[in-house]
Amino acid sequence: MNKSNPPSVTRIALASFIGTAIEFYDFYIFGMAAALVIGPVFFSASNPASQALSSFLTFAVAFLTRPLGALLFGHFGDRIGRKTTLVASLLVMGVSTTLIGVLPGYDVIGGWAPVLLCVLRFGQGIGLGGEWGGAALLATENAPAGKRGWYGMFPQLGPPIGFLCATGSFLLLAFLLTEQEFKDWGWRIPFLASSILVMAGLYVRLALAETPIFARVLQQHKNVVFPFRDIIKHHTVSLFMGALAMVVCYALFYISTVFSLSYGTASLHIPRQQFLGMLCIAVVFMAVATPISAKAADQFGRRPVLLVAGSFAFFSGFLLKPMLESNSPIIMTAFLSLELFLMGATFAPMGALLPELFPSALRYTGAGMAYNLGGIMGASFAPYLAQRLVAEGGLGWVGGYVSLAAFISLLAVYFMRETRDNLWE
């Protein structure tokens, strides 16, 4: 593909969207499996609370390795190009997820089961760490002037679609299989299905050329030898401010999905099919919020949109306990819908904001590291901490966790300069 034949908006949107959709599908199916079956399958028999905590710790492993993946793939993305690196990250991610689907449980291989599970979660984290930054750059570095927020929305639409696919698959299994069949083997099907999605993603991405902005970097020999060193030396503040701005997105999402699913089915005794159906309704609100927020970020700036959405997220934490414990499916669905709407509103501008914090030659590394460091702060231990907070102080403390995460991101955005009018180098 040459300069006279640039990629269409549809192709850019599909190529940047499909990777993040698969990324979030892979993470969601593990999160749901962690809430439902990972503990009993991969850990020795003990009390259910201990199994749940162990399960959520394996959930955290991939988040802890994501910055390493961002560093690794970001290095090559800023050295040799976006396209090749995106293809590699998708392969690593897909292979790791598929192998989880065939991994024997504790009853078969004993203590090796949790060890190998953590190894594959490590691989997932490495691949996922390199995914988002490249997808965001694929979109924004092809964007016309004044539309980076809108183009940056394309990878941000991946989460609600990935979530719908993940939740839909578990919901379908809940109707087709008995509880025992699901625990014995049914939960593995969504992991195996990931291989099909990865092949589709590879087909789309292999047809793309390098982004014009990075092609210019290569042509002018501006690519740097060790991008992370330059990030630490010259852009440390941008890196950590971007990471802190991401905290609220992750906290909103994983508390309202992974933790709520576990708490709703185990403690509130809501049937799994019913709660998954509630989440399917709620995630539609996240999909609706994403284009609205992206459009507003182009019109009014990234900071105003994030400050407004973050403020609502702060106050939403006070609603968690009364609405989740209401015993009303309508009220609980309304709360989940509110939280995921706010997740979409805070997440959408990040597709443009994080890349805009860094120069072209360092953008893959910088944006990816900020995104994934935010994941460690806001999501890696969110279900685990929420489980502990419930045990120690009750559900109200989990709402406080959400409000605290929102407050941290609000402070970061408040002290951050507006990036909407930053020129691409």
Quick recap of the structure?
By secondary structure, the chain is an all-alpha fold. The chain starts with 8 loop residues before the first helix and ends in an 11-residue tail after the last helix.
Key words describing this protein structure:
single chain, 425 residues, mainly alpha, Growth Hormone, Chain: A, 22 helices, 80% helix, globular
Can you tell me about this structure?
The protein is mostly helical and 425 residues long. It has one domain (9-414): MFS general substrate transporter like domains (Growth Hormone, Chain: A), CATH 1.20.1250.20. Helices cover 80% and strands 0% of the residues. It contains 22 helices and no strands. Helix 21 crosses helix 22 (395-414). The longest helix is centred in the first third of the chain and has 32 residues, at 48-79. The chain is globular. The chain starts with 8 loop residues before the first helix and ends in an 11-residue tail after the last helix. The relative contact order is 0.16.
Structural class: mainly alpha
Total domain units? 1
Arithmetic mean of pLDDT: 86
Helix content: over 70%
Strand content: under 5%
The CATH class is identified as Mainly Alpha
CATH topology descriptor: Growth Hormone, Chain: A
> How would you describe the shape?
globular
Largest sheet: none
CATH superfamily: MFS general substrate transporter like domains
End-to-end distance: 22 Å
Provide the succession of SSEs.
HHHHHHHHHHHHHHHHHHHHHH
Reported CATH architecture: Up-down Bundle
- How many whole angstroms does the radius of gyration measure? 20 Å
Number of helices: 22
Unreliable stretches: none
Total strands: 0
